[in-house]
Description:
This protein is an alpha+beta fold.
Amino acid sequence: MARSGGDALKIQENVFRGHRERVFDGNWPPLEHGGERESVKADRFGGDVSWISQIPQCVVFTPSIDEFKDPLAYISSISPLASKYGICKIIPPILPSVPAGRVLMKEKSGFKFSTRVQPMSLSDWDSDNNKVTFLTSAQRYTFSEFEKMANKFHSRRFSTAAVQPPLFVEAEFWKEMLAGNSDHIQYASDVDGSAFSSSPADPLASSNWNLKIVSSLPKSILRLLETIIPGVTEPMLYIGMLFSMFAWHVEDHYLYSINYHHCGAPKTWYGVPGEAAQRFESVVKEEIYAEKLLSEHGQGAAYDLLIGKTTMFPPNILVKHGVPVYKAVQAPGEYVLTFPRSYHAGFSHGFNCGEAVNFAMADWFPFGAAACRRYSLLNRMPLLPHEELLWKEAQGLDASDNEKKQNAESLMQMPVKSAFVQLMAFQHKVRWLLKERGAAIYTSLAAPINIPCSLCKHMCYVSFLTCKCFPEPTCLNHEMRKCQCGKERQVFLHRDIKKMDAVALRFQTVVSPLPVVDDGMVFDSALLEEDFLDGEEYSGYVPFDNIDAPDLESPIIFGSSVVTTNSDADADAKKSVDTCVNKAPVSAKSFDFFVLI
């Protein structure tokens, strides 16, 4: 069980399973800094760490060779149970034959990386000067250099190179954090690359569980992306040492994540189920971030701070407030999954190397819509073109339906159909209202692009709007009753808009309404009441009825966006757009959000 230099070059066997559930007996070895230390955070978080043995374990799965063949099918089968924990662990029936160290030192010649320096203390989060920042180190390491440094630190800290029991290391980690020492550790996170071998003889690397191919598998929604997003569609490496930590966070766009532990010491993970995310955020706002800090940064400050991935605090704070938390101790050769909108955090027990990538399946779309809504309210540019992904997946399902391929698998795709109907019903209804208020509606025949809304940065794919009030396009998610542009206001539609409406109409006959994932983000009057779209103005509305929208072809360029115009109708559109460019924008605060995004 001893960890010596060169550990990463060995085939990793799971030597931790035998004692994972051992209960720590409360006998501590002498502290490196001498004597008992009073926790500077004791008044706030409590100095007792006995709670660590009370955090329940997450569910663990051991698929058979046959079940292991299709990762996303297997994950779909366990998701109803596993998602209730926020995280789960999967112990595969096969292991790699080529060690990660050999891949990174032999197959990847010249591989070096920088690290982030992490303070071993908890922040008071009461001012900008007292926020945690993980600074990038100027030093660059080879894989073996970092391993030697990390092992030396481990030996100095515990007076031995031997692997320590997980509960003991967990208790030591939180004692260090609560003590608030000036110590710093290093963590190489978000390192481009993969430690899966390129050798066809490696059984795990040759399987579909190789993280380099997960996002492009047939059932993965991210296969539809036309661009590569490092860390999302391509895996990244995470190379840690004793007490390297990953702070509380959710994945971008509330995506799934899959994490493989290549080699080294275990990691402890904490996970909160996605259904408890809103309660998690409430506890953080009330118990972790000081009111002064939040008030200084305005609405959405807490969410912005969490996005920064530097908020670390003991999970017993959550438990005290009724937020469910589950734990996993991940050893080499094991996968950990995080589910949509599951907050998670954790730390390393010593030198190790892990790898992670995101993916999405059909059931992700409601969460993705909620994430886009949050980014819009925070005025953050999204990474993923949500509307485009939804339309492309819906097109494929519609083609399958026409070929009468109805089976159990197609039933699993119902969230896609429901989400698409919800999107298009909203778009059609707002489009109709804008037409009733005098807006001109056009269908753009140019190649579709994603245009960021100038008010909220929402990616407009199905439609966007221009008017005198703003020099750049806006999405249809804003309530425009205060706009006085009238007929000079224009809506530009995707060239496949008629097909989109037709597909949504077909889907509408077979799906049930999809519950909206509520993220609890209601800013001061930023959202209208849910019954707004059912008001008197819609008395003559017919769902998915044809709305006349002349075709436009030749290009018009304004600001950073392009629309297309041609013919007499196009000339009117160009004149209106030119007028928009020359008008000064009014305050974005003058416009509210519709309920749905």
